[in-house]
Amino acid sequence: MVSFVLRRLAISVVTLIGISMALFALTRFIPGDPVSMYFNPLTFEGDREAAVEAVRARLGLNDPIPVQYIAWVREIFNGNMGFSMITGRPVTELIADRLPATIYLMGVSTVIAIVLGITGGIIAALRKNTIVDYATLLGALGLVSVPSFFIALLAIYIFGLKLGWLPTAGINVPNGGWGDAIRHLILPAGIMGISGSVGYIRWARSSMLDVLDQDYMVTARSKGLSRPRVVLQHGLRNALIPLVTILSMSIPSLFGGSVVIEQLFAWPGTGRMAIDAISNRDYPVVMGFVMITTILVLVCNLLADITYALVDPRIRL
Amino acid sequence: MTSTSETTPVLSVRDLTCEFSTAGGTVRAVNGVSFDLAPGETLGVVGESGSGKSITMLAILGLLAANGRITGGSVTLDGVELVGASEKRLQSVRGREISMIFQDPMTALNPVMTIAAQIDESLKRHSRGLDRRGRQSRIIELLDQVRIPNAVRRARQYPHEFSGGMRQRAMIAMAMANRPRILLADEPTTALDVTVQAQILDLLHDVQVETGTALVMITHDLGVIAEVADRALVMYAGRVVETGTAAELFAEPRHPYTRGLLASRPTLDDTDGGDLDAIPGQPPNPARLPSGCSFRPRCDLAQGRTECAEAPELAVLGEGRAAACHFHTELALSERPA
Q1: What's the CATH code, domain A91-311?
Q2: Sheet harboring B315-318: ordered strands across?
Q3: CB contact, 8 Å: B89 with chain A?
């Protein structure tokens, strides 16, 4: 177990270095330049070219990309992820400000997705080929066919504008308390959770159907155990094993989804920060966001592997 | 066995009929099966795959798959009807009064629970008087009883850490946890190595002697019947075609199917040195049984005789002796030494 974790950590570090190199290069290749944003060509007076050149030189943007990369890495080890080229604030500070809101939203939606997905899948499996099963599958198919931003817009329109039940922007109001925070959370987390659950429903259903046919299920019933105990203790435990992998693979896509949802609901998370940074060519912020995302994904994958070994005693790490 | 008439049977099955609804229509997998089981006796049930042996046992416990149901007959445990009993009532019977051992110990144990946990579950359910410590020592006692060495350490292991024979021992320990009065063993040695088979049969016999439980041993191996069973039922296409003591069935089979099974056994002193005398043809598909006697197409006595167009009744031939063949007397004559 310990050697597995160490080995996986070593692999993760290599992955991280590779991704950082690739992305560092890619962000520099994107047309556009953060410095030209400093000096608006319509209002700037004087030698704009020279001004731009001076700032580029000061920021080291004229150095070859590998040189810039090494400088960036050196600073990372000093705990410095650079400064935003737009606001001048340290990237670490920007991310520290934004990350909790994103993790909060993603955490809640992941829990909703898992609970809905697994319960839905189990119910569909237990009621196989009945109206309940078909309704669940049809609902899942419908939801997977509609992009989550469209559902989000629809929900904003209905629950926010027409009915006026729920706030549609932001994370809370000052001194709003728990109730307010939850009201702000319902739409974005609910939509992300429901969209995320769709895949899990289908997987949970087929995984559960596999398990229900197993001999040990008959054994469990032959011991006189109650139906819920047979399904939950013997069925679910085994059906969860493949789901752990599915779950770990879906975490990166949750990040993608959260960028869109954060934008729509004016959620003060890293997603909006990333979009702003990319359109402004704010290199240090983009790199910071990507690095943090990569680390989270790698950590989640590692946790998934460990969980896999915990739920399946046949796996030795 | 003559004692059956004197003792009250612990389990009594009468005209049990089970049907399955499949894509191809309704299939009658068990058709009017009757038998009695006396306390402590061993009843063998022989037949090919698909003859309804396992379905009969599952039906007794109310464990038929979702598309199957009991459409007729009765199963009484100490005179109390089990067919149509509530799920709750059946749950209190399963694992306490009647336990079951399955064919393949590789798949019949839950891979994600320790052996101890799987036995404990059954104890927790039925032996309410035992506390945690009591159950713990009972688990070790059971594993000792089925001769699993290092019981304390083995109890904490998972099924994949056990060999096939050891798993079947664990399965037996689990089934015996609440000292049931009836043990249904569904081909308990079929999936095991030949050397291990004998050990498991010996173990079952010893456990039975120690606990006094009645044993129903399903098998397609007549050798097993000869070794362990007091009495045996021969099943074919969902029906009982012959009953008798193991000795009677071996010495003078009264049904051509039983005779065929006996003839198809390889023996060491096989003098003609040739092929095995296999029964010609295949066991019938339960969805498309032949009309009349189900064994007719494979039978060397039928030969187009008109009687066989009608299904034969199970004719009582004596105490505990019965055969479902129109020509059982012919067989009796042919078996008699000249």
Answers
A1: 1.10.3720.10
A2: B98-101, B182-186, B214-219, B42-46, B231-236, B239-245, B321-323, B315-318
A3: no
Q: CB contact, 8 Å: A223 with chain B? A: yes
Confidence category of residue B176, pLDDT binned at 50, 70, 90:
very high
Contacts of B184 (CB under 8 A, 6+ apart): B57, B60, B61, B98, B99, B100, B101, B216, B218
Domain end call among B179, B201, B228: B179
Whether B1 has a pLDDT exceeding 50, the answer reads: no
Put simply, whether B122 touches A (Cβ < 8 Å) is yes
∠ CA A245-A248-A250, rounded to 5°: 110
Q: Is B38 a domain residue?
A: no
Residues forming a β-bridge with B216: B43, B184
The candidate with the shortest Cα–Cα distance to A217, out of A242, A238, A241, is: A238
Q: Say whether pLDDT at A298 is over 50.
A: yes
* pLDDT at position B335: 54
A96 Cβ contact partners less than 8 Å away, ≥ 6 residues apart: none
Q: Map residue B37 onto helix, strand or coil.
A: strand
Q: Is residue B140 part of a domain?
A: yes
Burial annotation A171-189 (CB, 10 A radius, 16+ → b, else e): bbeeeeeeebeeebbebbb
Contact A225 B87 (CB under 8 A): no
Confidence of residue B150 (pLDDT cuts 50, 70, 90): very high
CB neighbours (10 Å) of residue A268? 18
CB neighbour class for B71 (10 Å; exposed up to 12, middle 13-18, buried from 19): middle
Residue with tokens 């088979």: B197
* Token pair of A186 as six digits: 């319902």
Q: ipTM of the predicted structure?
A: 0.86
Contacts of A231 in chain B (CB under 8 A): none
* d(C-alpha B120, C-alpha B174), whole Å: 8
Share of chain B above pLDDT 90, in %: 43
The residue from B156, B179, B202 where one domain ends is B179
Backbone angles phi, psi at B95, to 5 degrees: 80, -15
Per-residue tokens: B198 = 């004998």
* Type and span of the H or E element at B93: helix B87-93
Contact A223 B93 (CB under 8 A): no
Instruction: Supply the Cα-derived Rg of chain A in whole angstroms.
Output: 24
Domain boundaries, chain A: 91-311
A227 touches chain B (CB under 8 A): yes
Could you tell me which chain B residue has the CA closest to the CA of A213?
A: B65
Give the domain extent around B170. 109-179
